[in-house]
Amino acid sequence: MKLKLALLLACSQLFLKAQNQDSILLKKIYNIYLTQSKCYSNLEYLTTKIGPRLSGSKGAAEAVIWAKKAMYEAGADTVILQPCMVPHWERGAKEVCNLTSTKLKLNIKLNCTALGSSVATPANGVKARVIEVKSYDDLSDLGEKNIKGKIVFFNVFFNQAHIKTGTAYGETVKYRSKGASNAAKYGAVACIVRSMTSVADDEPHTGNMNYDTTICKTKIASIAISYKAADVLSESLIKDPNLEVFVKTNCKTLPDEPSFNVIGQINGTSKTNKYLVAGGHLDAWDNGQGAHDDGAGVVQCIEILRMYKLLGVKPKYNVRAIAFMNEENGLRGGEAYAKFAKENNEKHIAALETDAGGYTPRGFGVDTTNNLYNTVIKWEKLLQPYYCERFTKEGGGADLIALEKLGVPCIGFEPDTQRYFDIHHTAQDTFDKINKRELELGAAAIGALLHLLDLYYVPK
Amino acid sequence: MKLKLALLLACSQLFLKAQNQDSILLKKIYNIYLTQSKCYSNLEYLTTKIGPRLSGSKGAAEAVIWAKKAMYEAGADTVILQPCMVPHWERGAKEVCNLTSTKLKLNIKLNCTALGSSVATPANGVKARVIEVKSYDDLSDLGEKNIKGKIVFFNVFFNQAHIKTGTAYGETVKYRSKGASNAAKYGAVACIVRSMTSVADDEPHTGNMNYDTTICKTKIASIAISYKAADVLSESLIKDPNLEVFVKTNCKTLPDEPSFNVIGQINGTSKTNKYLVAGGHLDAWDNGQGAHDDGAGVVQCIEILRMYKLLGVKPKYNVRAIAFMNEENGLRGGEAYAKFAKENNEKHIAALETDAGGYTPRGFGVDTTNNLYNTVIKWEKLLQPYYCERFTKEGGGADLIALEKLGVPCIGFEPDTQRYFDIHHTAQDTFDKINKRELELGAAAIGALLHLLDLYYVPK
Asked: Which of B123, B174, B223, B243 is least enclosed by beta carbons within 10 angstroms?
């Protein structure tokens, strides 16, 4: 009995010592991030010197060269440019959306943006009456007789009662992505969506759309109008259902372009073909600077390389910071990455994505597969002093979909969500919206979690 | 045994039902706040139509009238104007701080602000050599022989390694509050402090100072210079220790003025002299709009009155929203409130303060006295879906100090701290820095907690 007690005591002391060592390690990591990180200045360069960088654009090509340099500067042992072909969609001249009503004596410009991947209107634009709907059910209820020849206007608000803004986005984004095909099915000549946003301003929000040829083979132009413009259109329609809207967009899809994922690697001490990776996406919409979406994620991941350099330790596994290409309108980078990983028998222990903005950290979404969630949930207390201890049971993100399909357990970094959709996919997603400490604390949380995984995670 | 089991089962089912009812109640409260609240538009009015409102100023008097009206509009049964005499300090003409060095051929303007309650420099200003210190220990080490006739410059940075910015503020604010008296003790002719800030910009941060006549009877002028100006001064001092700085301030302290706390009350159903109160402060520094500090707190508390109106229920206790006067430079409002409470035998069940900005909620600091902490900690799970479940063991805030001394258990609302000290006490504390959802979520957390206390809190 005495021996048992002594053993138990020894074990619990060892456990406490290990916990204490982890606390000291985390403090050290956070100190590095809060006093020596370069993620803020890196992001300043990426957003203000390079700026917009949609796949296939000059900006995207410049961003690839910059990312490679930044990764070497941060301490990568090697930087890989991993080729992938990407879509090349161009907006062309600024879009126009005008509301005219003889009855109301109105001739108003509505702030608008073409949606990514949309076709252009005919060269002279389209002018037609407008039919407002709140859902796909509305659309089928109205049917071809009410819709044919008109512009369909999906006037669907964010539900502000949700606590996480992403929930509201999830509910409405289907109208952006497939509204055009669903409207075209009933003979609509163009598609307008209310911007997916939390805030009642005059900023139009772009984002990708897809033509679903299983729904309708006809491709019609699709735009988003600002929250305020949508209010104006909706209110005017009540007063004059016969008002007309003129839409002219000038976008086009050019042939695919060669591009790259940029991968900065720290070689692990175990010298196996095993990897722990964290990525954000390098491409960004053409109307802003891609500061929160997702320059923030890219610079946060690059900082992992510097963390190992400044800690003066090497990870057990090979650790990679990935700047994915083409998240916004194709996911070709994410797919290419998974394809290469499979072809080269790279065993991915876990993969993390950061693509929810450079806001103050809250926690992580974590896959329950391969013992991953059970591992990280034990670090709740450890991460509590850093306000980043909320673990939910679903991980990953768009760029990790292909890796997840290969069975890699994934993690999504989850910062506070309140401000993200105010500026998401708009001209307002600029560097001045970034708070240095929030960005750094997010980076630190990601670096800390990745290092803890390298030290302790035993996949099933 | 069977009976026991049945009882246990019945009890646990009752418990689950109660929990479920509380979840439904909280959802209802949050829905109200996120879809029907007026705190954002109220704050817009207070900050942009009234603006600066330092105690004794015209703005403060206007704010009192506005708060009374806003409280009635929100649904108060009664609004009390509770008189208190407040200090009346005026900045006068804009301050000047110039650095000149013949050796370095420099003549630079340093962005500065007089500290609240400071005396002015002599009418012609003071021009003197500067001695830089990092602490009070530095000051006593240097002694009168090195300090006499010079300007003392407290060049103390925020420690960015702290996770909560308030910790760094707590470490440095002593130089703002008592730097002048400590410097004057050794014969200094003026006092300059590096602005208390997280961000490396050119904005000077004001804030109150006090002359401590137990340290030194002489009162010297005291100013803060911006982070960047402090860098310039410090770097220049290395190159030319004989450089001179000219300081001219024009502030004065006038006789005390009559003012008011504004108290909106919902009468409780129990018809006792018992109170649950929540307050922020109505006064704000003269250089900005007092949006986060503390217009946000005031409008959040006013929203409690509307919450009860929209819920269609009455609290058991009398519930009060308090707009305290004179938090910034005197705490006279907080003191007057406690004095009146005592004189009128008002039993305060608990008191909450919100004065840390209108940022995204994190949780509450809660006093451990009178069973308060033990009560609220049980609501951790209940508040988790609202991201406001962190309870730490110390409550209150400056305006509640006097109540706390009477034995009232206090709570401090704790939003995320990262951005607060970027704009604290500066011209940048303006309405455009407020995010509507963050403000409303803070208000909802406060309202929800207060209502839960009314329903369930049993003081010891």
From this structure: B123
